Amino acid sequence: MDSGRSRRIxxxxxxxxxxxxxxxxxxxxxxxHVYIVCAINxxxxxxxxxxxxxxxxSIGQAGFMAIGAYTSAILAAKCGxxxxxxxxxGGCAATVLAALIGFPLSRIRTIYFxxxxxxxxxxxxxxxxxxxxxxxxxxxxxxxPRPEAFSFFGLLQIxxxxxxxFCYLVLLLLLIILLVLYNIHRSHAGxxxxxxxxxxxxxxxxxxxxxxxxxxxxxxxxxxxxxxxxLYAHYMTVLNPDxxxxxTSLYILIYVVVGGRSFFGPIAGAILLTLIPEFFAALxxxxxxxxxxxxxxxxxxxxxxxxxxxxxxxxxxxxxxxxEAR
Amino acid sequence: MVEPRVVPPSPTERHPEPSASMFxxxxxxxxxxxxxxxxxxxxxxxxxxxxxxxxxxxxxxTTVFNLITGFIRPSSGLVMLNGENLVGKKPHAIAGRxxxxxxxxxxxxxxxxxxxxxxxxxxxxxxxxFWEGIFRTSPYRSKERSIFDHSMKTLGFVxxxxxxxxxxxxxPHAHQKLLGVAMALATAPKLLLLDEPLEGxxxxxxxxTLEIIAGIRARGTTVLLIEHNMRAVMKICDRIVVIxxxxxxxRGTPEEVRQNEEVVKAYLGAAEYAG
Amino acid sequence: MFWQGVVNGFSAxxxxxxxxxxxxxxxxxxxxxxxxxxxxxxxxxxxxFFACVVLGINIIGAFGIAxxxxxxxxxxxxxxxxxxxRGQIEPSIIVAIGLILLFQTTAVVTFGADEKHxxxxxxxxxxxxxxxxxxxxxxxxIVGAGIMLALYAFIKGTKMGQAxxxxxQDMDAATLQGVNVNRVSSVSMGIGSALAAVAGGIMGSIxxxxxxxxxxxxxxxxxxxxxGGLGSIGGAVIGGLILGLVDGVVSLYSSSTMASxxxxxxxxxxxxxxxxxxxxGD
Lengths: 326, 275, 282
Description:
The complex is a heterotrimer of chains A (326), B (275) and C (282). Chain A is mainly α. Chain A has a single domain, classed as ABC transporter involved in vitamin B12 uptake, BtuC (Orthogonal Bundle), CATH 1.10.3470. Chain A has 14 helices and two strands; from the N terminus they run ααααααββαααααααα. In chain A, helix 11 packs across helix 12 (265-279). The model of chain A has no long low-confidence stretch (mean pLDDT 90). In chain B, the strands form two sheets. Chain B has a six-stranded mixed sheet, with helices on both faces. In chain B, strands 1, 2, 3, 5 and 6 form a five-stranded antiparallel sheet that branches. In chain B, helix 4 (114-121) packs parallel to helix 8 and helix 7 packs across helix 8 (173-186). The longest helix of chain B has 21 residues, at 138-158. At the A-C interface, helix 5, helix 11 and helix 13 of A face helix 4, helix 9 and helix 11 of C.
């Protein structure tokens, strides 16, 4: 069996394991909760990474998450729209804003883009806060429904108040989103996006429509971010604007940078940094110190992110025999 | 960027007279504030020609390229390709119309491999769409394959095929320049603008690149060339236009230009041009 | 009503100026946005609180201690963390985020998360022509203006100040002229942090001291320096006062949230249209 085939079987097995984990742990509500939160974080991080390939690094994604969350929540809870549709509505609302603001934003240089997104995110959070008759403001929005139950061919009863069932809903959406992002990543468009991130004028001169491409991937990323927000809303069943501040956006950025800029980087980063606060929860208010330590370790020792680790290990192993020979 | 002094288009510019040659610029002018960087440049290039654009440093040659390719907007004047005025179009649209360029300082996508660079540049040739890519349809995948084949052929043509897996940022200087040319060729242009393609090359590399340029013309692409290497310019160009301080000071065949007094004066260092 | 808003805004504006001065100084010289600047401001407030309320030192001494302590902290941050990533946007952001978490957590475990108060320097309200101005706000204006003048004198008058100007214009050229760019960067971050500490202490006495007060400062501070132009000290002053005025006036007619929304929308507009700000060159 050649190495390529055995690698693919290994990856398939890992994927299967990840998919079966919730059933295996079905009694453990805490585990399922972390699993769901982790999956949502992966969606957020992967979306940010996709738009960052064009050089559009945003620290305002929590704002788009908020748009998705509140739109879906209000449509479902106050307008009686089925949750499946309202979640799509949440994603669409986020996309519409992204498309509207995307063109002016596409002309801004990276450092200013970062700052604009921060203020955009803040504006969205403040608007949610201020429009309290609609959103519940600081007291929060409550009574957000879980997706409607249905019956699978009369055999399987799917009821989303059951955490396990919701877990699989999130997992399904996660896999679909990752598949789409992966196909974009290895498609011609993905190459064009990465080209834009390296050299904009060269990209232009070989026929790539830079502005349109930037807006396109920005809108797609915000669609998934809004969708993640909707999932969050219907999972938590309550919403508070504090969850969608710049700090949350910075966390999403950290998942990407710690994990690495490759396709799988944000997945690794989101998983690691979602699990760390849980593992060290016993430290209570001292827990963030662990997080900080990990951040500094990565930025000083492993600037390429977690995905760079295998390469670094291979290189230092290769160097070792030379050291001994001296 | 300082806003240029824009002269509203005259009636003849809004409905330009048809042009005889494949490519021409008419009264191409560009001001930066009060300074006139390019003044009334009228180039005429016929299909299949290799035309040289020469002049001392700072004469405005690269600015002319930037005006033609849409990176800067002219203050006034026209840029006509096959009778169509390209002024006001964005660079990617102009590339789509068939004008490709290289840059004075060799540009590539430094983190990509050579073949990835070519794939990025093959966008126009392949016509692969965004939504098709998500679903990876069969027509999409065959488009990807044809872009790959086209890229490999172009790399072979410039002689970079052995380096196809090399990371572009690590390439030696001459190879980076050739990669720039290959990428411009990948867009299947009608007119190729080369900005100092021989700069920094050894004598052998110069000769090889000149062969490539001749090959480009043989394949049917017209070339407009900025170069300081006078020996090469005299050797390969059919016609030459000389500019200084943004204005044309001479034009003609290499022999005519070589003997032109104004040109000699402009260049001061006669040695560099006596070649 | 309107003029009360103007007065409120003017005094708030000087605090924004103090925060922004530190940010713009650091950006001008180190070309990096110090996202943890708000947390430095927060630590400054806590330092004043600690020295004054816990140790019982008089208020001026407390401010003095806080200034010195945060000056040193600023220099350490530059030397140990930011210097390594000079010019690199993303690592600098990660370092700053790490510092934000570090400082916030330290404040929580050391001082607790509840609100604390720094005693007011002066009690009472000044009433002029129907307008009410709290005396401590008047004082904050005087202190703010005074510090700005002192900073100006420092930059124009001292060798270090001149070195800072040279470095902010062209780091390489300054190095060639014999400027110790590393020392200039350290001092800049030190001064910037000290300024933030003063702003934090003042805000802590007018309002409250708590570990999460920093996010207010960094968002306002960043808004000011974008408005006024990144790296421009004059811009920081003008931007701070303008933003303060917008906040003051809109707050009275609507709410402070609405004021922030209007202010930030203005910033977004500026970033789209003229990112270099009111006084920026670019």
